[in-house]
Sequence to fold (126 residues):
Amino acid sequence: MSSHHHPQQPINLLQKLSLVTEQWSPKVIAEMNDYQFKVVRIQGDFIWHSHADTDEAFFVLEGQLRIDFRDRQVTLGSGELFVVPKGVEHKPYAEQEVMLMLIEPRGVVNTGDEGGDRTAASDVWI
Fold:
């Protein structure tokens, strides 16, 4: 395991996000046990998907995120955290660009079991 997996200095989430230019492409900034902390910029609509084997945590750093479920919606503002239970279909949406951190096990694919052209490479570090 290379040294960037365990940096010897604090990680500034917004500074890491300043290195991310494209949207919908999560980048890993830290690992804890088998979990990864990822930062991502999103805007617009995503696809309906679920993760059969894991919960997924969304932590909004800047902006407003709406997570659609089949029976309701949850809206998160800056500083708010929401955990989507495993196996639950969801669809993130952001009217304006949102910067967020995802916390999920290593190897989780952003489109879950759906795949398709919105799938981003996993395990990409910045």
Remarks:
- The first helix runs from residue 13 to 18.
- The helical segments are 13-18.
